[in-house]
Amino acid sequence: MGKNYIDIENDRGETLRYRKHVNGRGLIAHGAKVHPSALVEAGAYVEPGALIAEGAQIGRGAWVESDAVIGPQARIAPHAHIGSGAAVGAGAKIGVRAHIGTQARVAVGSLIRDDESIADGETVATDRRGLRLAA
């Protein structure tokens, strides 16, 4: 049986240890918290300090940076990028290759479409079709 972790060197020359999540085999950094019922698909990365809530799904190749929070039942599509300190509300859906900036906020139940970018620090609320709502 193979080992359940992998060591990766970051841009600053520091070695970070990632464990393979039991549900999906995605890589979870030491210091990240992922609920056992969450799905983190193979090829996805969850960085230190990130929090993935109950029932959330992180797609193949997605990257959740440090201190980001993914709410219950949220769906992060393949190859999406969630910036450091960003928050994705419960039940929100983030599209394929979408980019959520550093410290950005996506409201509960919102839809961020494929290839859409949310700027650093921006707060976004949409309806189920992805149409933005007034703040």
UniProtKB/TrEMBL annotation:
Keywords: Transferase. The keyword Secreted does not apply. GO terms for molecular function: acyl-[acyl-carrier-protein]-UDP-N-acetylglucosamine O-acyltransferase activity. Pfam families: Hexapep. This is Transferase. It comes from the Bacteria. One of its GO terms (biological process) is lipid biosynthetic process.
